[in-house]
Fold these 4 entries.
Entry 1:
Amino acid sequence: MNDSICLYICKRDEEGALLRYNFDPQACVLTKMGTEDVLRYVACLAINKTYLYTSSLDCAGNNLFSAYSIQHDGKLQLINRQAASGFDATHISLNPQTESLVASDFLASTLLFYGFRSDGGIGQFRQLLQFQDKGAIAGPRQDASHPHCTIAAEGGSILLTADLGCDKLRLLNGTGSVCQISEVTVPAGSGLRHLAVHPTRNVVYAISEISSDIFVFRFNTCGELKLTQTLSNLHCSGRDGSIGGDIAVSPNGKWLAASNRGENNIVLYEIDGNGAIYYYDTVKTDGWARILRFDAASEYLFAVLEEFIDVGAYSFPAERCASTGGIQIFHLDAAQNQFQDTGIRETIPKAYAAAVLDGRK
């Protein structure tokens, strides 16, 4: 797989499939390779060069984490599964410094921490961190603290958590017994959803679900956290017609992509030398772009579209509810100032979670 890119896509349903695709960046061709496993209601994937981890549900509806080794051809071999407390972790990430898996459990208002075994499997439970703040009550799904996403920064010495329920970005220590160090509150009814850290600067970008805004924060190892920039990510509709999706920073640190679900587009921003962002372009998507991932060369952007489901807390015009799950691929040609749809489509009913492994040297 040294000359190709592996895409792992999960379907979220009772008999959810973990699918594998290969993408040839030279020929711009996507090929389905097969089904790697069957998991119930997968919510999230996390990956490094050797292992893939998934968050799903067991038969009782509780959290179930699975670990796989990635073979030389991209195929997966199950290492182990670990049952966990909680209801449905919306996000999992890896902390390289402490060699741990971090799960954000939206409904239980908790973060779960697990170690890794020597073979890459999920090891012993380490810690549960409970958030007991009152919800902002200013928007949907804000009845209580709801951590939606947690990512590592500074090599893992810092963790950052987006709390959708409380309109807060939390900064935590990433080593030892994890606890909160500082926090910043964003405008009520924003609903922070997903985060992306700049690869070379102490800057973190957040997309809000409810208001579809982009927030830029600066942080340091002393625990200081400051909001420095706020931009609306909506360009074709009002707040009642769309909700924020995902956010991603290109590996070269030059581009930020953020998706809107309902407005159905991806907004691309250029990042300057200080980490500030400036609007660059907007491309349409065929539906609700839930996941965004760049390739290692910062030339392709993979958008995983989720099949529209009744999101309950939101009301959308009928024309904004048309979305079929699948993959849509975009090409970024910075030299030609072009951000274009490649025309590649792959329909995957109930597609929901994704991870990308770039095998090129």
Entry 2:
Amino acid sequence: MGMVVMTYKVNPDSNVDDVDTDAIAEAIRGFSNDDYDIQLVETKPLAFGLKYVQVHVKMNDGEGLADALEAQMSALHGVGEIEVLSMGLI
């Protein structure tokens, strides 16, 4: 089985006031385990003082692993849309 490297853009939920992107980033860092190697989590400027979280993760190329990670990130308070910026096999 190969490995996949993915980069996600985790946007704040526009319906939630005062989203703490630093808290979201810290929670995502804690997702590292045997399935997911969270390599880098950064908060980056979006627009008008808003920020988003960019996540770089390496995982096995197993069925459903990417969907499960996206579901974990979506369950965090203040997370809106999650976008895949890049994906590649290594």
Entry 3:
Amino acid sequence: MAPAPPAPSHPERRTTVGIVARPNAPNATSAARDAASWLQRRTVPTVVETETARRAGLSNRTASRTDLPAEADVLLVLGGDGTLLSVAHPVARLAPETLILGVNCGSLGFLTEITRPEMYEALDSVLAGQAGIDERLTVRAFVKRGGREIADRTVLNDVVIGRSADSGIIDVTITLRDRLVTSCRADGVILSTPTGSTGYSLAAGGPIVHPTVDALTVTPIAPHTLTNRPVVIPAREPVTLEPRLGGTHVDAFASFDGQLSVALEEGDKVVVERSERPLRLVSAASRDYFAVLRQKLKWGER
């Protein structure tokens, strides 16, 4: 790995940097130690996620993963896409102005698009107020049971209605505000943001949607009828997903960004609404979105 660059002479704002690393990942833990040392030499205020500090042997001020976003102006996320998704909810809820700088210390790293050799340069650009920022649409998803909400989650990637391994296919009705979109019989349904379009939705046959497009994608999972195809819908109106679980026993669940799963019962509805504020991700200076597609997904290669 290239040595850390020397501190530049330009003046910096007093920006507080939070550090969180993927658990049980030596590369991420090592990167956390390197980043903390680099920030300390520059006298940048730093707060480290509690478990990350313990594993890396750091003595910095600490905060829990839930509280960390409110303690920092920029959150340095070291790991893979799952690590970034694990902080997306608390950032969106507690501190939507907090920047997220995702550094890939894993394998694919589509959301964490900045490489570890680029970490110092990216940090330097953030501290200098010169970093490129991508604003990503998020949604709030509610599980409604009777007259109450039993779950409320902010989502960056996708909401999935799925069946358990020992259940048959399920029927899901999708409505856009009060208008019926479709009813499908399938293993489940994925409601994806543009950011999530390159994840589970893509694997299930959904389209790639550019992050600046103000839309959501409904993608059935292994539909029973071949005419059930993915559809792109406007993000400005609430979407309701309602699985029909009566009759023969069917176990279904709602999953939010792969981070939280809720068992569903007959009559439950999953309502998804566009969030008021986007999530702010630091973009790689050396490549644009289409370059990331080509690099990470081998897009356009024969």
Entry 4:
Amino acid sequence: MTCTEAKFIGVNRHRIGRDGDGVTTLACFYGCPLRCHYCLNPQCFDSNYKCRVLTPETLLAEVMIDDLYFQATGGGVTFGGGEPCLQSRFIEEFRRISNPVWKINIETSLNVATEHIERVAGFVHQFIIDIKDMDESVYKAYTSVDNERILENLRYLSQLGLQDKCRIRLPLIPDYNTHGHIETSKKMLAGLGFSDFDVFEYKRRKRAVR
């Protein structure tokens, strides 16, 4: 693949109220740095999964069919995965060639090098951030990696004053955290100026791929 190509596990149209304002199309990249125990998309790191390889231009041609829906509802394209921020150059190029009135959202764990966040921060309408838990031991037990990069990126977004563009998901994860953990996470995040929290409970679903 060239630097402007990326692997996708799917492109899902006509989503309402789930991935940003208005009508959105969810474009999910292949590849993820995490190995979450209850992963919803284990195909993101399944080496045998048959991905679609798209360029920003071919993705644009596919989603243009919904241009009127995006404009009429204030919607646009939400990039998910996997971890979309690993494909920050792709997203940057897609933003450059797409209709400027479309909103670009990113569903992310923030567990990436800060250079990726720097590349997209200037044009993303909403970061939908799946924090898991701010407690390092809980996070590592559940994802198999540490959360150092997440903390760096949260501080970076806070320094830019982008807290209002961030919705932070704080799940209750069976066997891993508690309501007390969630309240502690909220207090830590509030200390950085974040206030839009989505608290919910994960359903038990063990990953199929390790």
